[in-house]
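Researcher: I'm preparing a figure for a lab meeting and need a structural model of a single chain. I don't have an experimental structure, so a prediction will have to do for now. The sequence is pasted below. Please return the structure as tokens so I can convert it later.
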Amino acid sequence: MRRPQLSRLEVVLLAVSLLACIVYFAEVSHNSPTFFVDEASIAYNAHTISQSGVDEHGERFPLYFRAFGEYKNPVFIYALAALYRFTGPSVFAARLLSALLGMAAALLLGLLAIRITKQLGAGLLVFLSVLLTPWTFEISRLVFEVAIFPALLAGFLLLLYEASRRMQWSWRIAAGLGALLGLMTYTYSIGRLLAPLFALGLAFFFTRNRRRGIVLTWIVFAVMLLPLATFSLRHPGALSERYKFVTYVKPGDTNTRIVLRFVQNYAGNFGPGNWFLKGDPEPRHHLQWHGSLLLGMVLLAAIGFVVVIRGHWREAWWRFILYGLAVAPIPASLTLDHFHTLRLIALPIFLFVLMMTAIQFLSAEARPRPRARRALLATLAVFLLVQGSIFQWKFYAAPTRVDAFDSYYPELLNAALAQPERPVYLLDKTPAAYMYAYWYATLRGLDLHNFQRASQTTPPPAGAVVISHELPCTSCEMILERGQFRVYKVNSKQ
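Model: Understood. Here is the structure written out token by token.
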């Protein structure tokens, strides 16, 4: 049996895809050669787990990782710990893991596109869209827990699509869907809300023949939640502590005020200004004053949305995709942050899926005016690839975002360690900055006994060398000052 030959378009897309993969990994650590404090915390705890199975506080294989006023989610940390077993701790290895997870999401969504459209070209175009879209690309440059969420959601949707084509769901499908929902719950804070909502959305597929499989999926998911329930009982309020600081829902607010703010935030998360012009205002998450989405990708998703509404509304799969698109912004809409792309990461995944039915619709032969439709598809595809390439060029050409990642901290550490006094005292306004010293000392193989954490109530003694974060010094000899940090020697007791 002869294999079908690739069309010219498929050959071109395949060549562009290979080039995009090379560029994707060419400068993995370009985002910053150093870590932001949350990245340092994740990487340091992954290192300690890889070495001795304990976190920075000595807890053995914790479910959640306690870190300066919050608990970090476990899935990414344990994945990085597994990598560190082979590579040892490094910035490059951690950023490489995030990039590999971003590539996995692109591959899974590309495979889903092939399954839906039966077209290799559609799969390649979706694959390229995921790699080039700022929203998904930039998250793959960060060592944050959210980096693994797109791949898990893409895997869930791929398995769900396969399940939607079957009259009955086998126990393997049910177990896989339930397990992926469970992993999403432990991957990032939004998963604790979105995973149950996605599980609820499985009701769209409910039929007499699938009833047992769907119920089994819910049971597997419920079992996956038991460790979370146990942790919450043992540590009441621990996982919701940070939420209190990032939400606008405060005691005493009226229901009307809360609902109005939610509607305002929810609508803003679909705002064209955020999608195409500004993006996330946090420079760690996004290259400033560039849109988070590509216009060609969104136009294809919009066409797909219309196609689904007009022709596929009765299909459970497409009803679930519209439902997923609707619930994806809910976690971010409950917080104070303006267009927080990390908490909105599920949103572009559903837009990519809507692209797939648009590509299928525009490329179909047996429709009125097929040439015009294919011309429109080609135009949008070229526009998408060109705009995505321009963003990539600007991202790599942009100056290092020093302030966003505190990239100067190694210089401060060098200045402190050049002094003979030990230990070096770490005096922080917030209880987080000490992690920089721990992480960079680990990279250099230094014993952490060279450092001592101090506080305003128990200040460093006279003659001590101090690395201070956002706290002024009095009666001190300044050694180096950069950004929010300063290195000095205490002349007398403060």
